[in-house]
Amino acid sequence: MSESSARREPPPKSGERLADWADGRLGIYQLAKSQMRKVFPDHWSYMFGEICLYSFIILILTGTYLTFFFKPTAAEVVYNGSYEPLKGILVSKAYDSTLHISMEVRGGLLIRQIHHWAALVFVAAMLAHMMRVFFTGAFRKPREVNWLFGWTLLMLGIVTGLTGYSLPDDLLSGTGLKFAHGAILSVPVVGTYLAYFLFGGDFPGDDFIARLYPVHILLLPGIMLGLVAAHLILVFYHKHTQFAGPGRSEKNVVGAPFMPIYMAKAGGFFFVVFGVLALMGAVATINPVWAFGPYRTDLVTTGAQPDWYLGFSEGLIRVMPGWEINAWGHTLALGVFIPFSLFPLIMMLIAVYPFLEAWVTGDRREHHVSQRPRNHPVRTGLGVAWLVLYAVLLIGGGNDIVATHLRLSINAITWTVRIGFFVAPVLAFVVTRRICNGLQRRDREKALHGRESGIIKRLPHGEYIEVHEPLTRAELYTLNAHEQPAAYELGPRVDDNGVARRFTVRQRVRARLARAMYGPGTYVPKATPEEYRALHSGWHESERVD
Q: Which residue spans traverse the membrane (predicted)?
């Protein structure tokens, strides 16, 4: 045997042959080589998006398990399960199967409760993730489309939660469906047709659960799965945003590679999220359908409350005066239709905000560095105002619970919410903007004078001063890396020839919005290098830290 044949490499193993076969047909190696080493920055606020993804995966897993036992039909049967208080009562098969899952299927109640908690956490994490993106300006070009994907996922998550909440056909979910039915009926002209189509006849209808079930387990999750995939693809394509700091710019990303570091951390965090949801499902009871009983049209639960993410819409309807207009034999229920319309309108304003801000600023550049919320006081104020408005209406949605638990007058709570609807967001905006301006002043003073050391020193002529420690160049860069755009202005009213210039309504609106967002008094000018050099050029030796 020759020396060359002795040194011949051993034949590839089965795993290597399979990898070569797949790479030759799918190009996996080149794809992995270009994408698996992609760098992702690290910050605690980025975990909100990961919680969204992991809770969505858990929802799919637990929901798949529940479909094996749930019967989506309103056909009536006599309950003969293991829960004694309901034995012999006529219930729907949907409610009967829900009790069967909760009482008799091994692990069924745990899976049900994990599923419900995961839905609540999913929507909460999406809201927190979108607020992080909003406050840091991470929606700017080229991420406007991804912002719309996230907004659509939030809206679909709310609707999917409503459909899943309604499937068990218990008294609580039936009360919520009756609420939704009334809101749909308030739509002028087409309201009765929409309600008849959705419910398959008069409320509650015999086909509603059968219609709702495929929407909940197939249509909405399928759309959401596609949006999640598109969202992640765009995150990979555009690269992740990062906060300002030394070595970070609009053209690079400083962080850890996707493989193996980021994937290892993400995998561990997935099991942390799963473990927390499992613990919540095991120790915290949620939606005990056996305690509510089956739905009956002549009954209503006391203290009926929707899931928290629907409290906004219910609060609007609860505190709205019962206005009605009767004309030509028709009744327009403004007390229901106006708040029913306000909810999607307010959400639409959130969807179009990135495009509105880009139009006001006229900024068409790409941005990959996130902004600190304090450096954009008006935007931060608007975000906090929206959150305060949501909190006020959430109190309105639970006005009966607040009244009974705190022993307050429900009328007083309702009027407080009505006044707070107009006053609280304005106060929140003003206070938040002032706080942001105060933090900007502190950053400016810190950049110019340095960090307070807490050391008091007496000068030779008897004056006492506090010694300041000068900041490092990296700290100075972080404090002053942000931009402060100038407000768009219309310019002079007349041209060089003395002829009055004409401005369109679009230009006037843009100028007013720009002045409100970036005009005088909206932000504190940041420290400039000239100011820093002028201040420190004559720094007395006695003021330095020994």
A: 46-70, 116-135, 147-167, 179-199, 219-238, 269-290, 332-356, 377-395, 415-436
